[in-house]
Amino acid sequence: MIHFHIITLFPESIEPYLSSSILGRAQGKSGKPKKNEKPKICVSFYDPKDFVVTKHKRVDQRPYGGGPGMVLEPTAILKAVEKALRGKKGATKIFFATDGVQFDERMAKQLARKKAIVLICGRYEGVDARVQKILKAKKVSVGPYVLTGGELPAVTLIDAVSRFVPGVLGKAESLEASRVASPVTYTRPEVLTWKGKKYRVPKVLLSGNHADIESWKISVKRR
């Protein structure tokens, strides 16, 4: 089992997604688990507000040197991570940052072999830079754009990594890389009528000729 530890000011913003559908079943939170089936992943939240030690109990402070916005102060974050790491050796620590290493499928596969991953979600103008330095956390970015916080990157990483945890998808064939898949898919009805116009499923998918179907999928995937 892999255990994700999320450091976030807003756990309520992402907890419903992580507790639903495939990820929820992987934790034993949704669906009907099979007899004696053990959870495949675990997700825990740590709110820095619960670890604030400053006089005014604020987790955000004005940045030194000036500038817009507020910065998350380091002590609360470090204490939250310290609690997450308690009793866990060799945990991977990830610090979401715009200048981090680009997250991709290769990284997802590597992380799927870990037992514990700590995900630090920034907000506002970010987290005091000393947090990443002290923790020696790996800086990771999920794309060439800026979000309002690290919560969506955390969910993206957990979703992508969990797919490579044995048993989460149910069938190994569900992994895109392990099957001949097309980004274009169809289901019933065979003929869809929408606003007076008919849209048909490609004939090859109805032919029953598996060789032709696989060839079609490959051709569509290469376009």
UniProtKB/TrEMBL annotation:
Q: Which GO terms describe its cellular component?
A: cytosol
Task: Tell me the keywords, alphabetical order.
Answer: Cytoplasm, Methyltransferase, S-adenosyl-L-methionine, Transferase, tRNA processing
Annotated InterPro entries: Alpha/beta_knot_MTases, tRNA_m1G_MeTrfase_C_sf, tRNA_m1G_MeTrfase_TrmD, tRNA_m1G_MTases_N, tRNA_MeTrfase_TRMD/TRM10
Give any Pfam family that matches. tRNA_m1G_MT
| Keyword Methyltransferase appears in the UniProt entry | yes
State its location(s): Cytoplasm
Q: Which residues form the signal peptide?
A: none
Q: Name one GO biological process term.
A: tRNA N1-guanine methylation
What is the reaction catalyzed? guanosine(37) in tRNA + S-adenosyl-L-methionine = N(1)-methylguanosine(37) in tRNA + S-adenosyl-L-homocysteine + H(+)
Question: Which EC number applies?
Answer: 2.1.1.228
Q: Where does S-adenosyl-L-methionine bind?
A: 122
Cross-referenced SUPFAM superfamilies: alpha/beta knot
> What GO terms are given for molecular function?
tRNA (guanine(37)-N1)-methyltransferase activity
Q: What is its main location?
A: cytoplasm
Q: Which family does it belong to?
A: Belongs to the RNA methyltransferase TrmD family.
Q: How does it assemble?
A: Homodimer.
**What's the protein called, per UniProt?**
tRNA (guanine-N(1)-)-methyltransferase
The organism encoding this protein is Candidatus Adlerbacteria bacterium GW2011_GWC1_50_9
